[in-house]
Amino acid sequence: MNERNILVVAHAGRDDTVAAARHIITLLRNAGARPVLSPEDRAELSAVDSDFSGVDTLGDVIPVDELELAIVLGGDGTILRAAELVRAGSAPVLGINMGHVGFLAEIERDAMDDAVHRVIARDYDVEERLALSVRVKDSAGDVVFDTWALNEATVEKASRERMIEVVVEIDGRPLSSYGCDGMVISTPTGSTAYNFSAGGPVIWPSVEAIAVIPLSAHALFARPLVVSPDASVAIEMLERTTGTGILWCDGRRSHDLPPGARVVVQRSSRPVRLARLHPTAFTDRLVRKFQLPVAGWRGQVEGLPA
């Protein structure tokens, strides 16, 4: 029988996260599964607790395509890091919220024991989330950087003093040029992240779409846009731009953008897979995470499902 390899993603920056990682690893071993750590996490955790030095490492010992699932202890940033770690494989990601807003996290810390039992029993569903393919082309049209994003790709000014000048293209047709601080291209998953802070729309995860949001644009037409999930969105740094730009994907991967550079964003052929233990309405998640006022609601509306 093949070993069941479960990646545990955590960092050593918080005592409660270290304790939770130790507990999860013990539960997995007791259930006959093999816990796995990334080399970076193993080094950081081992510096805090030598017990972690005996855990197998991803890549060196366990290939990513042999992972069954990733259990993530932390907030959305840690979940984004886990999604990057498993990107080359097919393992879904299960997030355990450790005290952050945690839109991507499935459960809270007080339910982690039950979560591990459900993982061992394979008692979970897998939800696929739209991800973005992001390429940077130079002024000659050659691809010089190729990456992806789960939340968003942002084209931003690299210097605080200078704005950038860009032209936006949708499906091969120019839409408008902007002098701006940047542009955000967001997935539905990322609509409650940078997109939300920039004034973009909240998009339910079940709606497949791509949002395009100008940042502090000097233009009359500077409204957020929602386009087809199969659209091609291009942001080109105009040659007349006096400053330089920078591309960020999920706040984790970046590339400098000189004048003439072109960022092409499309739907990725590889979605991100999230493990789900409890079917929860996204409306309820919004209300809970943002503490929205719902006092006065009189209950189920007739004709709608409970």
Structural class: alpha+beta
CATH C-level category of the largest domain:
Alpha Beta
With helices defined by DSSP (H or I, 4 residues minimum), what is the helix count? 6
Number of DSSP strands?
Answer: 20
Write the CATH homologous superfamily of the largest domain. Probable inorganic polyphosphate/atp-NAD kinase, domain 1
Instruction: Report the CATH topology name of the largest domain.
Output: Rossmann fold
Task: Report the span from N to C terminus.
Answer: 43 Å
Low-confidence stretches: none
Helix coverage percent: 10-25%
Q: Mean pLDDT across all residues, rounded? A: 93
CATH architecture of the largest domain: 3-Layer(aba) Sandwich
Question: Helices, strands, pairings?
Answer:
Blueprint: E1 5-9, H1 15-30, E2 34-37, H2 39-48, E3 56-57, E4 67-73, H3 76-85, E5 93-97, E6 107-108, H4 112-120, E7 125-129, E8 132-137, E9 143-149, E10 152-157, E11 164-170, E12 173-180, E13 182-186, H5 194-197, E14 210-215, E15 225-227, E16 233-237, E17 245-249, E18 253-257, E19 262-267, E20 272-276, H6 282-290
Parallel strand pairs: 1-2, 1-4, 2-3, 4-5, 5-6
Antiparallel strand pairs: 7-20, 8-9, 8-19, 10-13, 10-17, 11-12, 11-16, 13-14, 14-15, 16-19, 17-18
